[in-house]
Every structure is written in structure tokens, then in C-alpha cells.
Write the C-alpha cells for this entry.
Amino acid sequence: MTRSRHPGSGPRSDRPNAKPQHADPRQEHTDDHGKGGPRGGRGPAKGNRPPAARGVLLYGLHPVAAAWVNPERRIHRLLVTESGRAALEPAIAAARAQGLQRPEASPVDRTELDRMLPAGAVHQGLVIDASPLPELGIDDLCNELAGESAAVVVALDQVTDPHNVGAILRSAAAFGARAVVVTERHAPETTGVLAKSASGGLEAVPLVRVTNLARALTELQQNGFWAVGLAESGASTLAKLDLTGKTVLVMGAEGSGLRRLTMERCDAIARLPTGGPVGSLNVSNAAAVALYEVARLRG
């Protein structure tokens, strides 16, 4: 799906000349290779932290490889250990075959990558500094899918955990969903944590941010989508519904579930056939089961 910026929406950090948000001003005069340093000062010594990120730091083999071969992703810097460089070689060759412009790899020690990332981050010897992907608005999504008779979209009602949203993106990519819709507020930023949980899904499935989820559902419905909310109170199971056309699966946050207004905008409320001592699923697990069910019903 071609991504285009929704006029007037979202941050501007993906502009080619935009400064990264919260950038350390002492790093403004440092180039991509770590040469130079604060004006009037010495360049960073070997073993010090690399320059401040110009975009977002993505890490781990699957997120980095997927971003590396994505022509819509602008990459500023690649930091690798020796083993990480070897693991990324297939993606490097694929990007070269596509004619993509990519920076040369900068060899680093594993401890240097550890210092750059959140504690416990599993980077597998690979970190890239990349600009955010172009944004896709809800109207862009509707236009892209206007000529299709069947499509699946996932909408998340204030799901805030980046691990959950990342895992849902991964399932969406695996089962052919065309987008994941989230609210601008009460939804995680597209950080390295989210990208790592998505395991490459962030590059394959657009994350569409909307100001008002109820209005976004209305717009999808006006463009031929049937909105199905998932809740334990559903009168029937998801398998009993006709999901062969354009469908948006609406998932609520853990604990609070779907908000009242969101439920009212749905065309149907369904449940998963859970039972036993544990009657509900984590939202990312529920999304995976629901997406599988839609794919199974469509054959």
C-alpha cells in the first residue's frame, strides 16, 4: 500500500530536513559517521555514545531487515556487530538488487548498542537510525481500498501497550490485514519497542492514526466496511457472522474493553468462543485469533 501524508495531520519529524524531536543540541554539529562534535569542542572519543538519533532507533534482525528493504523507509545510519552484519547480509543484497540507497554499515561493539537502547533490548547486533514512515490518513486508506470487494482492517480502541500493538501488527501482516487503526491519543508511538514486537510487520501494514475512532469507523462504514466489535458480551461468536466482504475488527483495551460510543458505532458485537478457568485473552492474542477466523472463513 502506498503511503501518503494526510494533510494537516501528525508530526513533521519525517521531513528530510527536520530535526529530531528532543534532540540534544550538543549533537547538532555531528555528522552521520560520528565525526566532529559540539562547536568549539572535541569530537567524541572512541567508545563514547554515537551521535543523537535523527529519527527512531529500530533494532533486532527482523525489524531492521524489513526496514532495510522497504523503499518507503529512509535510513540514516546502520550500526552493526560482526555477527549482526553477517545476519543482515541477505537484506543488504536484496536492497542492493532493488537499487535502494542505503548507508554503509558502521561496526560497533555489542556494549555500545546496549548503551543506546532500553535496558534488556534484544538487538541481535543490529541498530538502524531511520525516519518515520510516511503517514496514511483514514481517507487515504478508504481511497486505496475503494475498488476492492474484500479487505480486513483492525481498529484499536485506546490500546496503549507498544508490545500489544506491535504483536497485533505482526498478526495483521501474517493474516493479510490492510491496516491497523489507532487513536492519536492513548496509543503508543512507533518506537523501537513497538517495531521489535511487530517483527517486521510495521513495514508491511500501515499504522493509521485518527483523532476520533468513532468518526473513523463511520467513514469506513460509508466506504463499504462492516464494523464488528469484539467483546465478551457479544450475542454470537465471530464464526457465525458473514465476514466475506470489507470488515473492520474493533478491539478494546484490556480491562476496560470497548468504550460505549465505540460499541454503538459497530454494526455487530461478537465474541470469541473462550471458556474454562480463563475466560478472556490478551488483546494481541484475541486479535490473532480473530484475524485467523476471518482468514479461515474466507477460505
